[in-house]
Amino acid sequence: MPRLDARLKLVASEIRGQIHADIGSDHGHLLAALLASGRIQRGIAVENKPQPHRNSSATLERLNADIRLGDGLDVIHENEIDSLSICGMGGQSIVRILCEHPNRLPEQLVLQPNKAIDLVRQWARSNGYWLTDEKSTTGTRRFEVLVLARSTSNPDPVYQQLVDAGLDEPMGLMFGPWFLLRNDNELLQRLSEEQRYLQTKQNLTPSSRKRLDLIQRLMSSDHFLSR
Fold it and tell me: Average of pLDDT values for 45-50?
């Protein structure tokens, strides 16, 4: 049975359900581990290129899994799955996939964007999903995992908790409301280092300027200073 790296172990720890789909499964290792551990009863691996499709087919052979060739949710049926994971893509790609077939999305989403994570949080904020938890790996490269659950009630209460703590929604969308509420030491250290780096730059892009402004406001907030 394939062994998962720290990133996929973190994703797997959040998944439980009958039928789970993993989009961009690559080698199918996540689904194989979920099936072996009994966290899911059936898996669906979705690949949009022939070689990853062959890789997943080899890994998941003789397991209770379908391996489908297609783009995102194009090959998933409405009400077919209980949970969905998308890992290792940029936030823009993840949001595109989620937006294309909203009627096919399940109750639970476990997402691991490699960049532009704020776009995924904003999508959830605007599309009826609550951010129920955020977790991250430790080490040189930090991977963040977002756990989302569909809700018929808006807005997501975690952002009000953020405001009650003296922070604000833009900070939460950019850096993660749960990380900020928990005073994630590693994240705050990284942001402090990023602040020093950006302050040395003379010509910042608009996105870098926005990020620096948010970091500066966060670092000067009572929530941060009272740690």
Answer: 96
